[in-house]
Structures are given as structure tokens and as C-alpha cells.
Predict the structure.
Amino acid sequence: MPKILFLGDIVGRPGRNFVVERLASLRQELGADIVIANAENSAGGAGITKKIADQLIAAGVDAVTLGDHVWDQKKFENEIDGLEQVCRPANLPEQNPGRSHLIVEKDGFRLAILTVLGRNYLTFKSSCPFLMADAKLAELESQCDAVFVEVHMEATSEKIALGWHLDGRAAAVVGTHTHVPTADGRILPKGTAYLSDAGMCGPYASVLGRDVGQVVASFLDGMKRRFPVAEDDVRISGCLIEIDPSTGLSLSFERIELAK
């Protein structure tokens, strides 16, 4: 049965360097067949570049997903179409460049991968994630054996609601964006693996990956300042999901956390 390793938001140089350093051995240890990673914070903590995407793919990431920081790096909108293993959120306006989903094949098993942005507390222009997920599942039904849905959202309630909405239809619904791993990973009654947030691959001696002192100071005085990426207690966080290709649903779920 194919095993899918999903890595939470890769944050800055510390996060991506640790992923590049450890992914090959981690993949072997876990027996992962397909690796998916959210890398929307991999360039200086905000956005991604073609160079970084290529580096992650060369290290063994099969599919790179993105979120609300997708266009933060200058000129990436001109690079994304050339990156066949990278997809932007599916519910962005249709005229946005980039792929709205990916299909990764391994030993005859075809996994479709897509991300939907939330609309609670995110100001990004996006359509309804529930309706978009429905539409993509219908579109991809004949093209794949299972569908992995990443929910890039601020509100836990929105993530959980979408998990229940897709139970029995998607192999997995896994949350990103908040950078804090949650303890609610499970398989829902109809066979969909669910996790509210996979956490981040980056420095945990931080505030969501950023320098503690600068963030605390901003909360104290309310003034705007730069939040450099932190450096210490770097970890890889994510989850491992085993899928039954005959049903397109999940057999097992395990949260993964690895310290440097």
C-alpha cells in the first residue's frame, strides 16, 4: 500500500536545509513512496523561488504546494509555469499562472494533489474552498486513484469543517499555514485521514519561525519591524499516511516530528 509523507510549511533557510539534508534517509526509514511539501515560506520566510523549488525537488520532494505567500517573491509568477512539480492554490482566480493541481504516479498508483486557501482571516482573493474542492474531486475522479487535499487556512473550524465535508471522498485532508502541529490527527469514519495542521519544517525556538525578540517587541509597542527567520531548534514536522489504492481512502495515519 502506498505511503504518503507530507511535510508542513518549510520556513526559511534553516527549514529547507534540514529537509534537503535529511529527506532521503527519512524517506527510506518511513518507507514513503511519495513526498509532498508545502514550501510557501521557504524563501526568507515568505514565498519561494525557482531555485529553491528545484533544490527541494532534487532532494526528493515529489510535489511542492504553496499558500497565501505564493506571489511574495519577485518574478515568481513568471517562473511557476515552468515548474512541473509545483502547484499553486486551486481556488485562486483562474487567470493566475501555475498549475491548480498535480498528479504524481508511483508504481502505477496515481495521487492527485491540490491545495485550497481558507477565507476566514485571510485577505487573499480566493473562491469558496468547499465548492472548489468539490469541483476538483469531480474533475480528477477519472485521472487518479486517490486525492490528497491540503487546506491552507487560518481558522481551525474551517479546516475541520472541510475535513468532514470531504470524508469518504478524499484520501486525506491536511492543514497548513499556522505552523503549529496539532494533536487531532486521525482517520475520519468514512476513511479520510485528517490533521488540522502539520506544523512547520523550521526553527521551533521562534514565533512561527521568526525571531522571538522582534515579534515580542512588536506585540509590546505595536510598531512595525522586520521579523527575521530564527535559527534554533530546527525540526521537520508532518505526517505519514497509508492509502488503499482500491478505495482511494486511508488505512493509517501517523504524525512525524524529527529534531535536528
